[in-house]
């Protein structure tokens, strides 16, 4: 466990040694702040007057907060491949992997360490993003339960992106290939959701398989343990595949 | 000389599908011995070293490091192993100190022990002046030395160095050779190189590989021209190569 933590913190720190993490955090924050302000403005100037006096009207948490987290999920679909591509593919390209594989640590520790390092960055990003809706509580009553569900949902979604990216990064020695294939896989899972909802040929199976369907129910404030299980299974299988892949490299025929 | 065997590899073979890269190789290393691993390109040196460091599983055979089986207990066996691959495995975005600190942590060293080990390794590889600089900004020679520092940091019983003097200037080469000799007093060193004079300068014993097999394994005492032996063994006495000799004359 201590080794996993050592690798995770070093990976986390190394991301901030290059401009990569800084610029990604800045760009994502900027765009999401824009989206947030846009939503808030629309709510205050148009929706709120129209909804005044109605029973069970959708509130700020439903309209502004959910939209913000949905946008965050969509943007990270494009950003996560850039973060995951470096994990193993870059080590391969720079031939630094022997440092870890010769050290007295197991492959699982390496994989989990790298994954945890990326999770730390994801947590940082979600924390920064969540400051925006949290700031609304200065002026209004927020639905904290709903906000918590959205945060948990986004975390699970990004954690599943990261696990898939980690595996694809372990397959290749070209970071760009790792990024492109990760992006392709994540996009495919989203298209699966869209095709599951399409008229005529829609299928519940497609919706179930896509990680976006599970994310949306979190955004509605619905915590369903089957969604949680879906994400945990998704993450665990990709981590296991990564460990197997790196183990097999030692045994290559 | 102490006769404790620190590294013993028995009947090591490695096949890549049908191709046999290393064929029933035996390799023994005593305490306080510097072994030179020689051979032409494609002789199986890199494969052998990858197997000895646990980066590649042998098809058959066993490897014991300091009496611990590398294949059964890789994690405890690797504690006694230091490895410098052909490309020093350094992270360019860390400083020398940060990098060595990470390596020491990976080897499970704590607090004071770690600081002491880093200080000693830097001193031995003459890195003290560049300790707080980014590895990306160091010259090739310094990067190489950071790689060597990483390999000897945890005071391993067996140090495996793959072409450690590539890219160094003559003065640095002399320093590194001196360092290897020093290491050879308490540790065992396997040195792979193409530079024959270097082998004569630092090694106690030479093992020459050709086509995955050992063709020469003897101490260097009484050998006056290693070059002559090398060419004779690799290009003449090997029947497998005799017929292809017309294509690539030595």
Major sheet summary line of chain A = none
* Side-by-side strand order of the widest sheet of chain B: 6-7-8-3-9-10
Structural class of chain B: alpha/beta
Q: State the order of secondary-structure elements of chain A, H for helix, E for strand.
A: HHHHHHHHHH
Descriptive report:
The complex is a heterodimer of chains A (253) and B (250). Helices cover 83% and strands 0% of the residues of chain A. The longest helix of chain A has 34 residues. Chain B has 250 residues and is of the alpha/beta class. In chain B, the strands form two sheets. Chain B has a six-stranded mixed beta sheet, with helices on both faces. Chain B has a four-stranded antiparallel beta sheet with strand order 2-1-4-5. In chain B, strand 7, helix 6 and strand 8 form a beta-alpha-beta unit. The termini of chain B are far apart. The C terminus of chain B is likely disordered. The chains are: A mainly alpha (253), B alpha/beta (250). Chains A and B meet through helix 1 and helix 4 of A and helix 2 and helix 3 of B.
SSE inventory with pairings:
The complex is a heterodimer of chains A (253) and B (250).
Chain A: H1 2-17, H2 19-51, H3 60-93, H4 97-102, H5 107-135, H6 144-171, H7 175-197, H8 204-209, H9 211-219, H10 225-251
Helix pairs in contact in A: 1-5, 2-3, 2-5, 3-6, 3-7, 5-6, 5-10, 6-7, 6-9, 6-10, 9-10
Chain B: E1 5-16, E2 19-30, E3 34-38, H1 45-52, E4 60-65, E5 68-69, H2 74-78, E6 81-84, H3 96-106, H4 111-124, H5 140-152, E7 158-162, H6 170-186, E8 188-192, H7 196-202, E9 205-210, E10 213-219, H8 226-236, H9 239-242
Parallel strand pairs in B: 3-8, 3-9, 6-7, 7-8
Antiparallel strand pairs in B: 1-2, 1-4, 4-5, 9-10
Helix pairs in contact in B: 3-4, 4-5
């Amino acid at each position: 466990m201590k080794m996993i933590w050592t690798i995770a913190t070093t990976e986390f720190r190394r991301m901030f040694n290059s401009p990569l993490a800084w610029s990604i955090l800045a760009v994502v924050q900027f765009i999401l702040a824009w989206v947030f302000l846009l939503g808030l403005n629309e709510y205050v100037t148009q929706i709120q007057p129209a909804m005044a006096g109605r029973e069970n009207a959708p509130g700020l948490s439903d309209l502004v907060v959910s939209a913000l987290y949905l946008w965050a999920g969509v943007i990270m679909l494009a950003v996560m491949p850039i973060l995951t591509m470096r994990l193993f593919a870059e080590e391969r390209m720079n031939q630094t992997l022997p440092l870890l594989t010769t050290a007295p640590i197991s492959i699982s520790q390496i994989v989990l360490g790298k994954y945890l390092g990326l999770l730390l960055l994801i947590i940082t990003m979600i924390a920064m993003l969540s400051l925006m809706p949290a700031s609304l509580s200065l002026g209004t009553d927020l639905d904290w339960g709903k906000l918590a569900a959205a945060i948990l949902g986004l975390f699970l979604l990004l954690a599943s992106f990261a696990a898939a990216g980690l595996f694809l990064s372990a397959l290749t020695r070209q970071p760009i290939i790792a990024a492109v294939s990760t992006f392709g896989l994540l996009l495919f899972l989203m298209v699966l959701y869209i095709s599951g909802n399409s008229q005529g040929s829609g299928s519940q199976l497609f919706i179930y398989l896509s990680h976006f369907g599970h994310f949306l129910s979190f955004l509605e404030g619905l915590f369903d343990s089957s969604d949680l299980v879906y994400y945990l299974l998704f993450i665990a299988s990709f981590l296991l595949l990564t460990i197997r892949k790196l183990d097999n490299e030692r045994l290559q025929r | 000389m102490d006769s404790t065997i620190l590294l013993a590899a028995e009947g090591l073979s490695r096949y890549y599908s049908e191709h046999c890269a290393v064929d029933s190789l035996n390799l023994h290393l005593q305490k306080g011995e510097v072994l030179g691993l020689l051979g032409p390109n494609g002789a199986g040196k890199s494969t052998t070293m990858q197997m000895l460091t646990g980066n590649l599983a042998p098809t058959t055979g066993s490897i014991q490091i300091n009496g611990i089986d590398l294949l059964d207990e890789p994690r405890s066996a690797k504690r006694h192993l230091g490895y410098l691959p052909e490309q020093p495995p350094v992270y360019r975005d860390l400083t020398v100190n940060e990098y060595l600190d990470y390596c020491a942590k990976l080897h499970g060293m704590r607090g004071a022990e770690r600081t002491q080990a880093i200080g000693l390794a830097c001193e031995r590889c003459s890195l003290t002046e560049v300790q707080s600089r980014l590895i990306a900004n160091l010259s090739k020679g310094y990067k190489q030395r950071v790689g060597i520092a990483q390999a000897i940091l945890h005071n391993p019983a067996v140090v495996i160095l793959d072409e450690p003097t590539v890219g160094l200037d003559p003065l640095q080469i002399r320093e590194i050779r001196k360092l290897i000799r020093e290491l050879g007093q308490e540790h065992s060193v396997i040195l792979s190189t193409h530079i024959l004079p270097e082998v004569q300068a630092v090694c106690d014993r030479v093992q020459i590989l050709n086509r995955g097999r050992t063709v020469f394994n003897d101490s260097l005492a009484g050998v006056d021209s290693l070059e002559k032996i090398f060419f004779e063994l690799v290009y003449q006495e090997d029947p497998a190569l005799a017929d292809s000799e017309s294509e690539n004359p030595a």
